[in-house]
Design brief:
transferase; EC 2.7.7.3; alpha/beta; pantetheine-phosphate adenylyltransferase activity; 6 helices; Phosphopantetheine adenylyltransferase; 160 residues
């Protein structure tokens, strides 16, 4: 069975990687779909986010990375995916993801699997990482090494 886990991944965090690793154990193939979220002020281009996601999953042979254009359900159909995987951190995430799961199921018949975030990184979000890094904070314990390097390049005041 093939699954897609999507997000803006701007940047990809250790919390994202945890969900990806856990989903990798559940499915035969997993595609990390890097999407655009127009409601977010991103710092990395699509190409950079795809590259950083590829670096983060480099040791996972059944996981691939691809940019998402348009509707997620159309991307899933193009990929031949049977399932959408989404991570949950808080109750608000559940409310939103449940709405999206119902919409996606109605539009395409695709099922959604919701995985709770692990305790270690469950409170970390890309927006918190962006904010901390842009103000000089060391976020290296919360992101893969390639992301930490990319953030230091974007924000030279980031401490190590």
């Amino acid at each position: 069975m093939k699954a897609v886990i999507s997000g803006s991944f701007d940047p990809i965090t250790r919390g994202h990687v945890d969900i990806i690793c856990r989903a990798d154990r559940l499915f035969d193939e997993l595609v990390v779909g890097v999407a655009v979220n127009s409601a977010k002020n991103g710092i990395f281009s699509m190409e950079e986010r795809v590259d950083l996601a590829e670096a983060a999953v480099a040791g996972m042979p059944r996981v691939s990375v691809a940019p998402v254009e348009g509707l997620l359900v159309d991307f899933c159909a193009d990929q031949g995916a049977d399932v959408i995987v989404r991570g949950l951190r808080f109750g608000g995430d559940f409310d939103y993801e449940l709405q999206m799961a119902h919409l996606n199921k109605s539009m395409s018949g695709i099922e959604t699997v919701l995985l709770p975030a692990g305790r270690e990184y469950g409170t970390i979000s890309s927006s918190v990482i962006r904010s901390a890094a842009s103000n000089g904070g060391d976020v290296s314990e919360f992101v893969p090494e390639a992301v930490a390097r990319a953030l230091r390049a974007k924000f030279p005041t980031v401490r190590e």
